[in-house]
Amino acid sequence: MSFNIQKIRNDFPILSRKVNGYPLVYLDNAATLQKPQLVIDAIVDYYSNYNANIHRGVHTLSQEATDAYEAARQKIQKHFNAKESHEILFTPGTTYGINLVAHVFTSELKKGDEIIVSAMEHHSNIVPWQMLCERTGAILKVIPMNEEGALIFSEYEKLLSEKTKLVFVNHISNALGTINPIAKIIEYAHKVNAAVLIDGAQSCSHIKPNFQELDVDFYVTSAHKMCGPTGIGILYMKEEWGNKLPPYQGGGEMIDQVTFEKTTYAGLPFKFEAGTPNICGGIAFGAAIDYLNNIGFDAIVAHEDELLEYATKKLLEIEGLRIYGTGPDKTSVVSFNIEGIHPYDIGTILDKLGVAVRTGHHCAQPIMDFYKIPGTVRASFAFYNTLEEVDILVEAVKKAKMMLS
Ligand SMILES: *Cc1c(COP(=O)(O)O)cnc(C)c1O
């Protein structure tokens, strides 16, 4: 299929709006992706035509909503090649999924056990493990990274031992764009019988991970970073873990029988899905996955790589500009600073010119501490961005530099 950028852009109503009198150039895709009309339509269709609570209703609307919600779960299962659809647990998003695992893993740990995380984690990936360590007496170990912004694999190997119970790494760093070698990370963790949880929030709009092939134990992601709505995501939990680990929250949906003496829990996935879920969100997530697959991940990555290469080259022509995250394996994120100028000031001027970028520590303060900087300007590209938009960004950065130095 040929990659028709103009046709793709027409699918996204927001891309034709203006900001501060300029056409919007949306380069904050690592924070959230924009939504195609097809996803917006799925949301409107659900609330207009078959909104109902699911799983227990005998009436038609409830059955239609249940069918659509469970069809979305199967679609997601197929997309990620999970063995069973009940290994796909719907959650409110990545952060929730990580907290769920960190909470239910309490029963697996004892004092002196070790959890390994990477040095380039999002805050949502650091705090839950610190809390788990406080509860259990386990110890948190950190895989260091190098100047290029890549993990040092030999240091990871040294950290692994029979004390390691869980390894936690993001698939792609949201602050640097680095793609981590998760297949190898999982393989080495399994050699010492440690479980692995991968944060795929940043990867799933660029890469189609294959859960069975990776043999990953847990994998989390958010729909809003895959063109779907906010407030919905998945936690993939390998069946053996799902059966073994205790429930997270108690409530409706997650029970089998309830009396005041004893409650028995429902099987997977409902054991981990207490309460009325985000039904519409799940259905719209399914629509977003269809949309991405229809364009094709190979075409998406080829286009994004072209944008990344061009933006890197053009930005580096600006004197005093430094890019953070320069390893060979990275996605379309350019995190940079200009010598002597605060990233926030650059971001503010770019916004005046219609260019949306992120500035700050990107929820990854340890990375900023590593480089001894307060933050960066981060331009992150999606498949709907164009080379012309890169030119607009570069001109805007030059203008900001002139005004601020
Ligand atoms: C966005 C992001 C998260 C948090 O996702 P939420 O949808 O806010 O829960 C976690 N990790 C990475 C790498 C991210 O990019």
From TrEMBL:
Catalytic activity reported: (sulfur carrier)-H + L-cysteine = (sulfur carrier)-SH + L-alanine
Keywords on record: Lyase, Pyridoxal phosphate, Transferase
Key word Transferase present: yes
Listed EC numbers: 2.8.1.7
Source organism, top-level taxon: Bacteria
Top EC class of this enzyme: transferase
Annotated ranges, domain Aminotransferase class V: 25-393
A UniProt-annotated Pfam family: Aminotran_5
Sample GO molecular function, one term: cysteine desulfurase activity
One of the GO BP terms on file: cysteine metabolic process
Annotated TM spans: none
Alphabetical list of PROSITE patterns matching this protein: AA_TRANSFER_CLASS_5
UniProt cofactor(s): pyridoxal 5'-phosphate
UniProt-listed InterPro entries: Aminotrans_V_dom, Aminotrans_V_PyrdxlP_BS, Cys_dSase_SufS, Cysteine_dSase, PyrdxlP-dep_Trfase, PyrdxlP-dep_Trfase_major, PyrdxlP-dep_Trfase_small
Similarity field: Belongs to the class-V pyridoxal-phosphate-dependent aminotransferase family. Csd subfamily.
Alphabetized NCBIfam families for the sequence: sufS
Function comment: Catalyzes the removal of elemental sulfur and selenium atoms from L-cysteine, L-cystine, L-selenocysteine, and L-selenocystine to produce L-alanine.
Protein name according to UniProt: Cysteine desulfurase
Organism of this sequence: Aequorivita viscosa
Top-level taxonomy: Bacteria, Pseudomonadati, Bacteroidota, Flavobacteriia, Flavobacteriales
